[in-house]
Amino acid sequence: MLQHMKALFKVKIHIIAIAVTAVVLYLSLVKMPSYNAGIVHLDKLQHCFAYFILSSLWLLVFSKKNKKYLIVLCCVLFGILIEVLQNELTNYRTGDYLDVIANSIGVFLGLFVFNQIKKKLKLKKQKDL
Q1: Residue 78 and residue 24: Cα distance in Å, rounded?
Q2: What are 12-51's pLDDT values in tens digits?
Q3: Which pTM value belongs to this model?
Q4: Who has the most CB within 10 Å: 12, 34, 63, 120?
């Protein structure tokens, strides 16, 4: 039963990761309404959060395959590609190197949190033995 639940979780996390990737791509290329929340560089925080979630999900998907640095590289390249696409495909969005930096910070935060959780789980597992 536990293996069945793990397999189901793995399928669902794949679907969620794909859906989040598609949402990030969509939201990055559509015309967004302008708003002023009074927070300087709020969009950079949003970029950081989006890529934190994106990288965390993909790290979970491939956690057993030990491909975390490939996932990090792909997420950073995805962020760069989106900024290039914004600049080339739209006339209402512009690519911004600060967005690339915010995206990358989010990815590396995702990796950091993933590593910390994995380390704690490993220590707990060793304690239980």
Answers
A1: 10
A2: 888 999 999 999 999 999 987 777 666 667 889 999 999 9
A3: 0.85
A4: 63
